[in-house]
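Work Package 3 (structural annotation) set out to generate three-dimensional models for the target panel prioritized at the project kickoff. During this period the team completed the workflow that converts sequence records into discrete structure tokens, so that structures can be stored uniformly alongside our sequence database. As a representative example, we reproduce one entry of 365 residues exactly as it appears in the project archive.
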Amino acid sequence: MKILLIRWRLIGDVVFTTPIPRALKRRWPDARIAYLVEEAAAPVLAHNRYIDDLIVIGRTQGIRRVTEDLKLGARLRREGYDIVIDLHGGPRSSWLTLATGAPQRIGYRVQGRSWMYTDVVARPRELRARHSVQNQWDLLDAIHVDGSRNGGWPEGAADPARDAVEMPVDPAADGAIERRLLDAGITPAHDLIVAHVSAGNPFRRWPEPAFVEVLVRLARGGPMRRIIVSSGPSDRDAAERITTAARASLGEAAGQIVKFGEFDLAQLRALIGRSRVFIGGDTGPLHIAATSAVPVVGLYGPTLPARSAPWRDPAIPTWNLEVEGLPCRPCEQRVCEPGDFRCLTSLRPEDVITAAEQARQWKPS
């Protein structure tokens, strides 16, 4: 049996799909699993042992996209997939699902496109307090083999202990990070903290002065602490401003906040795996951190932890910090109704520091 999964982006959303190939292999160990993804998120899946064929495409526009998609559709049709699951639900993924000609084409009920699927799963439009992994897991209920319906996925609902997200460490990236840490004077004896201070979506950016306060106070907690600041390509200037301001406040101890330079997703995963705690907002790097065994402190503004908290073994501690009781949460992140981004500006640095200090004390049993 050949199964194709489609999810273009974003990094965190692709991370959330990673329990599905493992579940499919548990059910059908001999199945051949393919996954279609855009190149920006491909590193999440590159070393996934449950994916037999990783199909990576660029993100093109206009007539070039039309031409490439026609070729891709023909290629996918030749593969002869038995089941295609559209985890993305956009117009492009719907069309390519149809183009495969697979006997079972599973996707969400979307107005104007449901006819492209043989099996449709309802997806309420409202922002429910239900995790994204569970929402995608619903698509497995629609799989039927030999003409008979399952009547629901036989394993039941997704279980974070059994069905945790995953992104295996790339050995080459891990080696590169080890060398860079040593070059920066950071050894395994140091207390390493990784703080991701940016977000591609401006509605998820915690105020810069708050991050500066957290970094400074954590660095002052001990001379063996080292803090590495990470950021996405859209917000590198903000990361530089935060790092510079924090180092200036520390004076002679400025070296505890390390200017580490840039690193890619595979290297970020390796770096997090060598740290004591990860701090960051509800962005792709937070969910990459969730694939490790490192404690996470997540900062939530317009989004809900109930929908997008790290999905992993509950034995690994996670602190999901949010400002509860705001009637405007969650929101569509297009305009701030109150106008002051209070879901983020009301999140106190002292609460983040307390959570990070608690996270540092955790040791695997």
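The domain at 2-149 is CATH 3.40.50.2000 (Rossmann fold).
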